Amino acid sequence: MRRLSVKEITAAQERGFALWLKRDKPLKFRFEGREYSGFEGDSLASALAASNVLVLSRSLKYRRKRGILSMAGLEANTLVHVDGVANCFAERIPLKNGMRVRAQQRLRFNPLYFLNWCSAFLPAGFYYRGFFRPRGVWLWWEKMFRRVAGLGKIGGKIGREVNTSASCHGQTSQRQEKYEEKYEEKYEEKYEEKYYDKAYGFCDLAIIGGGLAGITAAREAARLRLKTILIERDTHLGGTQYTDKRAILPEPLQKELSKSASCLRVMTNAQVSGIFADLFIAVAQDVTQESNKENKKDRASSADATRQHKRLHKIRARHCIVATGAYELPAVFPNNDLPNIMLTSAAQKLMRLYGVLVGERPIIFTANQYGYRLALDFLALGVKPILLDARRIPVVRDAITIRDKGILCLNNVRLLRAVGRGSVRGVYVMIAGFERFFPCDCLCVSAGFSPASELLIQGGARLEYSDEGACMRIEQLGEGTSEGLDAIGAVAGIFDEDAVRKDAIRAVREASMALDGKSTRSKASTKVASKASAKGIVRDDAEQNLPYPFYPYPQDKIRERMKRFMLTDSHRAKFFLFKYRVAKFLREALAPSKAFVDFDEDLQVQDFSDSLRDGYQDMQLVKRYTTLGMGVSQGRHSNINGLRLVAKLSGEKPQELGLSTARPPVATESFALLAGRSFEPVRHTPMHERHIEAGAEMMIAGAWLRPAYYQKNDGDDPITGEALAVRRGVGVVDVTTLGGIDIFGKQAAEFVDRLYSWSYEKQAIGRAKYLLMTDETGVVADDGVCCRFDKDHMYLTTTTGGSDAVYREMLFWKARWDMDVEIVNVTGAFAAVNVAGPRSRELLEGLCQGLDLSAQGFPYMGVRRGLVAGCDARLLRVGFVGELGYEIHVPFANGEALWDALIEHGARWNLRPFGVEAQRLLRLEKGHLIIGQDTDGLTIPHEANLAWAVSRKKEFFIGKRAIEIQVAGAIKRQLVGFTLPKELRHKRMPKECNLVIHDGNIDGRVTSVSYSPTLDKIIGLAYVEKSQQAIRIRLDSGKLVLGEIVPLPFYDAEGARQNL
Amino acid sequence: MTSVNNTYSSNKLPRTSRLALRRSQLERRLSALGASFAPFGKDSSLAISFKKSARRGAVRANTGVLLCDLSPLSRIGLKGTAMPALLKSAEIALPTKVNEASQHKDHSLCLRIAVNEVLLLSALASDGETDFRTLHKALSEYDRRSCWTVPYQDSFCWLALAGARVGEMFAKLCAVDLDEGSFAPLMIAQTSLARLGAVIVRAPTSRGSRLPLFYLLCDNASSGYLWDCLVDAMEEWRGAVVSRGELLKLV
């Protein structure tokens, strides 16, 4: 292979060679450590082909050399390692300057090549059939097979980190790391950071495929002003329309389509991964190039501008037209996998798009017009190919054209085998019963087409094998689950360019009518063929396909010759047989020839015979037994041939064998793309930055970030220090995260009364009251404080994590009870701080205006409105931490100003901010519960010592009946307080959720435990049986510690400190 | 014994007096972009300019996305069965349907976000002091037992997005089609944006301007998170953060 010169292209006097190439922009890259050059517009595969690099990989099982087959990025032949990323299709990677590429297996000398001679011992599925005994040994074999398979390694720094962290064997990971480093050093390979995100898309019409059919449809849709998205897999639009003389070249086409930009969006480099219910289309797009174009003017030099950027589009279309074309099929003959044996479409792509001449002495083996077209392309470039037609009678027009040009064209040809070592060097064929050899440096094969129907199948279309067309055909489309889906062009079996254009226009007009609600679907119209034929468009796929493109050596011919010899001379016959067998043995010994049906999985014809012999005759079973179509290409080149082969071997019709299903994703996708940029909303209080500045360690609390504690450099335990500061002086904690709900209306108090367990209807204005919410089963759901600011205004607080659920519950019950209340979730509208400690009153007196903070003027559980540090505030005198305390709620935007004022003003009283950890310790000393920590999904109020918050007089509240039933029975467990000696603090401190053991049985669990610096002992809460007096807690180590059950609270039982 | 000495002295923190009483959650992010602030309204501050952004903003508007923090501007919510009557008495036109908005003579917007709930946004050119004068007057005179104010001024942050590619940018964050052609001026979408509940309204622009302008209102506590998401999303088109003054010139 070589690059065509400008002179050659000019001499060809035909437009349409090297269409995508920009010769003025040369690029350098490295493959397997060697430097090569290419041009902008090249794909990696084309640049390597132009440099005559024919071998890109080794096969999975036999380690045979493999090169370009389809130039479509479908099969494992061209998988390479690009810039640290494994499993990249070389055809689909646009060439970049400085790109570093390596093969995924050892290319030059592969020691596993000896397996080529051992195929008898390596039948399909040999690994799971032969390596399962003795039990457990498979785990060892599996690792080896995976390592040997050569499916790429996760490269680069990030990949290594993942590998090593996942590994349990330190030594192995170190060894691997060293190996990777060595490899990186050798190939100077660096992992390139990529950016993945997601986007939604919306359109009236999605056209999948930017070939002739797709473009024609897009033009028509633009003319009809339909909001359309045209999705093309390649970097350029055009598909295979470069073979059409009336086709528009990529650049003018792009310009023309961009004129319709208001209603037409063209997405290139975009692979549709799947069509889901209601035409929800997933598209994976490489938007690096688009981003670069956008950014060029601003900062072309910026590193970020060249960062790889991939996007997962989620498109909601009202109608979808699939124009994905068809996959060209290879023929099956011995050595059909030699490098430089490729499909005719691949050869044409290389020449037409990238200006790469695939051979100087090419042979074309074809069964359709596309081989003839390729022959004319070669001729235009001054190369005379040999054309071998598999058909008995070719199309007269094509044959005459070719012969008039002086090209040798032979009909009714059977391929016997290809020969060559590094690449194809010749081909043995049988013509009219005689074996002939043709030397060549390239063999282009076209045995027919198979519709690229995966998306249609996902969309609900029904496919069947057609004997008439010798291929799969869409038989039902556009109804049921596939409503709104249509197919045009080659995927619908229409190959003739004029017919394709007509069909595309037909489909868009029908879509337009359907979108306008004008179409009336008849049963006949659901058949693609019927829809097309109604407009005079006929399927011509039968003209393209060979019904059975398998060419094993014709045994019947040997038998025939044997019979002929036997009639005349039996010795001669025996000698002929001996000669034939020796020749075959020697040939196989020197270079084993294999006829591959599936290139990805190295499946030969023999594997299918084995499958049937072992009793697997159904296509689904054959697929699983042989792994047909389970490789990278997902059977695009092999499924049809596999079906034909199984049908032939089993003597059944292909239609009776069943089909394998095409599931998304259609093409390989990285996990990174699926994960993409994830959104995880986080809520910050207005004082967040102040906490950070003060050295807070933040912790997650629901959607919020809260300070757990504030780091200090004095070496003391910050949590203890903060707790003592509150007990001895004054502390401040950010409680903005608590939920806040305003309830307005005449029935506000009644509404609260029905929702919560205590009684609120008679709650005085200016007073606060504890809130306890239970669900319909009587289980504790949430708690908080209810503040009555007015007759028809209640302000309720909830737990940090419970505000949304409580609000939803309230909306539900409001609607159900049809009450005259308005509920406003003001969680985000207020910032709140709790100023707690014996000096808190003194501190606040300097900051509040017009507020009587005295014990009489503002008693415990009182609520007030007023100005604090110039901010409108709601003040609650509550004592969660068991000290004199004030909860100050101010508008959210005032939060930071209030915090600043408190810190500044509080310096006089040694005010210290405290975090959640200290707050939890302080409330534990006071015996206050945290819902969700000290309760679980089964806790009723009576178990958690909250019976006092359950009104007996009320007729109704949610959960009342359930609580009554449970209380009437025996309550088996009780939340109790326990203490442990302080000596256990460092070594034998229980943890939350440690089990409580009684008589050797599990009896409960610890819910909260901490060392109390105030009481100088370990204190905790646990569920135990009612009758117990002592508590045995099993530590993580299995040891038991004995604790004493004590009455709650641990601290200030009289409540004198909070009532100050 | 653990020391309880206070080390969190005011020296480490900016003095309260230097800053406005009401502070936007985004102030620090704006400051990092070189914003200059000026007092706004009674006790807020508003970013009035950014380093180098004026030139960029004008250029980017036609090719990309502009982002502006309008959180200091006035907004208020009303909820209750008497809300329509109250608006009528305040001479504010109530949109006929939920999820529609109406614009008034002073360019303020009334967003009907539920049958009995509206969100009122002051004009983009608001001075922050004279907004909703008629409404406040009506509120003071009205029997408030069937209509309540909702503190959207604090619970919601208010961002403006303008530019030719806003629709595309929204598509990266939101599952609702907010493309120019599909989402007409004065339409409202109450949806999830980057997994965050948000109210999005397409604001009408001046006759001369062809740029789409969107207002985005979402949870104030998550405004920093959303800001980062938006900045990241508009990076593709080299989006710019602009001040209100710059935005006013463009729309």
Uncertain runs of chain A: 156-173, 297-305, 520-525
**Major beta sheet summary of chain A:** 7 strands, mixed
Report the total helices of chain B.
8
- The CATH class designation of the largest domain in chain B is Alpha Beta
What distance separates the N and C termini of chain A? 94 Å
Q: Kindly provide the name of the CATH class of the largest domain in chain A.
A: Alpha Beta
The CATH H-level superfamily of the largest domain in chain B is Probable tRNA modification gtpase trme, domain 1
CATH topology of the largest domain in chain A: Gyrase A, domain 2
CATH architecture label name of the largest domain in chain A:
2-Layer Sandwich
Mean pLDDT of chain A: 86
Strand order of the largest sheet of chain B: 10-11-12-9-3-13
Structural class of chain A: alpha+beta
Assess the beta-strand content of chain B as a share of residues: 25-35%
Please characterize this protein's 3D structure.
The complex is a heterodimer of chains A (1060) and B (251). Chain A has 1060 residues and is α+β, with helices and mostly antiparallel strands. In chain A, the strands form 13 sheets. In chain A, strands 9, 10, 11, 12, 13, 14 and 28 form a 7-stranded mixed sheet that branches. A 7-stranded mixed sheet of chain A has the order 40-41-42-43-39-33-44. Chain B has 251 residues and is of the alpha+beta class. Chain B folds into 2 domains: 31-73 and 155-250, Probable tRNA modification gtpase trme, domain 1 (Gyrase A, domain 2); 75-152, Alpha-Beta Plaits (2-Layer Sandwich). Helix content of chain B is 25%, strand content 27%. Chain B has helices spanning 27-32, 53-63, 83-89, 133-141, 152-155, 166-171, 223-234, 244-250, and strands at 36-40, 44-49, 66-69, 75-79, 100-103, 109-114, 117-121, 148-150, 156-162, 188-193, 196-203, 213-219, 240-241. In chain B, strands 10-11-12-9-3-13 form a 6-stranded mixed sheet, sandwiched between helices. The radius of gyration of chain B is 19 Å and the shape is globular. Mean pLDDT of chain B is 85; it is low at 1-18. At the A-B interface, strand 9, helix 9, strand 14, helix 23 and helix 24 of A face helix 5 and helix 7 of B.
